[in-house]
Write a structure and sequence with these properties.
The protein is built from four helices and seven strands. By secondary structure, the protein is an alpha+beta fold. Strands 1-7-6-5-4-3-2 form a seven-stranded antiparallel beta sheet.
Length: 148
């Protein structure tokens, strides 16, 4: 299993970071891959919710079934199953100057030719810094989000 990590800081609260991580319209602003949300239980990602997303990676249209395992101000954890399996975790914490979070993406073994193509493309994207860039965009979006 391959794994990538990134850390970012935001001058805001963990709840504002969670807001940016769990609302589909906000996710589109920071995601390194364009996607279409085909279905989602509820209006946002929440513990126990599931959905389906599709997008293009390496010119191949792929779909993933998404399941959210945990979502609160301390952690967002989800898995996406498609041609490859992807596990994502964001660990959120606050301090006197704002919020800090770690992003961890793990890829489970692929299946079939499409799976290998998607795994190679995703691995190349993540190895080229896509997760670090996404973490910076998440922090920037959270700082701009209105406080609740």
């Amino acid at each position: 299993m391959s794994e990538w990590t990134a850390t970012a800081r935001a001058n805001t609260t963990p709840s504002q970071v969670l807001e940016v991580l769990t609302h589909p319209a906000k996710i589109r602003r920071w995601s390194p891959v364009d996607f279409d949300l085909e279905e989602l239980d509820g209006r946002r990602l929440a513990a126990g919710s599931s959905g389906r997303v599709t997008g293009k990676l390496a010119g191949v249209r792929v779909g993933f079934d998404v399941r959210v395992h945990h979502a609160d101000e301390a952690r967002l954890e989800l898995s996406a199953d498609g041609p490859v399996g992807i596990d994502v975790r964001y660990d959120l914490r606050s301090d006197d100057s704002g919020a800090e979070f770690d992003a961890v993406v793990s890829m489970r073994p692929s299946r079939g030719i499409t799976g290998k193509l998607v795994a190679n493309a995703a691995s190349a994207l993540l190895s080229a810094g896509a997760l670090e860039g996404a973490a910076r965009r998440i922090a920037a979006a959270a700082e701009l989000a209105p406080t609740s």
